[in-house]
Amino acid sequence: MTLADLGIGESGTVAALHFPPKRAQRLMDLGFIAGHCVTAVLRSPFGDPTAYQVLDTVIALRRSDAKKIDLA
Q1: Residue 47 to residues 14, 18, 21, 43, 51: CA-CA distances in angstroms?
Q2: What are phi and psi of 30, to 5 degrees?
Q3: Half-sphere exposure of residue 15, counting CA atoms within 13 Å on the CB side?
Q4: What CATH number did the domain enclosing 47 receive?
Q5: Domain of 52?
Q6: DSSP string, 40-55
Q7: Domain total for the chain?
Q8: CA–CA separation, 56 vs 1, rounded Å?
Q9: Cα separation of 17 and 69, whole Å?
């Protein structure tokens, strides 16, 4: 299951990031770290991007990026 599979209000635990090193580091700096909980909180009217809450921050990600984040 990936982050893109979450419905609004659903949560999951980050398991792995599948990005180049610099991009993965940036997402980890924002809180997308293995073991942390992520919740889908809002989806744009056209379905992309989706806003996710991780730690105390809400971050919008495109579906193509959310598909590269595995959930446990």
Answers
A1: 22, 22, 28, 6, 11
A2: -85, -10
A3: 10
A4: 2.30.30.90
A5: 3-71
A6: EEEE-TTS-SEEEEET
A7: 1
A8: 23
A9: 5
CA distance 48 to 27: 18
Q: Give the up-direction half-sphere exposure of residue 44: CA atoms within 13 A in the CB hemisphere.
A: 10
Per residue in 32-43, pLDDT tens?
999 999 999 999
In tens, the pLDDT along 55-69 reads 999 999 999 999 999
Give the position of tokens 């942390």.
36
For residues 6 and 70, is the Cβ–Cβ distance under 8 A? no
Euclidean distance between CA atoms 30 and 42, whole angstroms: 18
Model confidence, pTM = 0.91
